[in-house]
Task: inverse folding
């Protein structure tokens, strides 16, 4: 709790009055001892100087009291108030900086959460795009293979037909040669072709 200059002055005055009262009481108690002894060993306690000592004590105390109450104690109070104000300002600045740091930490957490959310969304989009591209590539590959298979089947069928025609022609020629050699008469081309067709059908 900060000490106010008015409170410091009031406490200083009370302390000075208490010191003055103690000094006066001590001097009053020392006076009888000075009278009963043979001479005074300490001049301030000599009864003959008691009145002048109290006079100068009062003047000195008044000067000190005035100096302390008007110069020293107010200055000390101002210094204490300045230090208290500076400490309060530093505490307020520290609280403001702490609040700003907490706000920045919260903003960072929000940005991090948003970045994670965006990263998950981007990853999901990449997976979906990859799956679509893979499906499209697979469909294209399947269509290409199907087209190549159809072309191969057509080529095989054409090759088979050509081979069968060559076999039929060759069989017809062989049949004509065999019949001619066995019977001495050459069959017609139509008869030889019909015989070969019949043999291929049975085979």
Result:
């Amino acid at each position: 709790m900060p000490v106010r200059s008015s409170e410091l002055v009031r406490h200083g005055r009370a302390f000075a009055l208490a010191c003055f009262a103690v000094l006066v009481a001590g001097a009053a108690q020392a006076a009888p001892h000075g009278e009963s002894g043979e001479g005074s060993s300490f001049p301030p306690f000599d009864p003959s100087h008691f009145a002048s000592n109290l006079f100068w004590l009062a003047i000195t105390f008044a000067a000190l009291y005035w100096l302390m109450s008007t110069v020293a104690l107010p200055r000390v109070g101002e210094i204490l108030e300045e230090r208290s104000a500076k400490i309060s300002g530093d505490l307020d600045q520290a609280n403001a900086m702490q609040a700003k740091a907490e706000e920045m930490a919260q903003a960072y957490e929000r940005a991090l959460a948003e970045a994670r959310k965006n990263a998950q969304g981007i990853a999901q989009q990449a997976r979906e795009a990859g799956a679509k591209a893979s499906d499209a590539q697979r469909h294209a590959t399947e269509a290409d293979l199907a087209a190549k298979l159809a072309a191969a089947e057509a080529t095989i069928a054409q090759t088979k037909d050509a081979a069968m025609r060559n076999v039929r022609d060759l069989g017809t020629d062989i049949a004509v040669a065999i019949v001619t050699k066995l019977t001495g008469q050459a069959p017609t081309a139509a008869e030889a072709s019909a015989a070969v067709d019949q043999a291929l059908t049975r085979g």
Observations:
- The chain has a mean pLDDT of 76.
- Helices lie at 5-36, 50-183, 189-202.
- Residues 5-99 form one domain.
- The two ends are 123 Å apart (CA to CA).
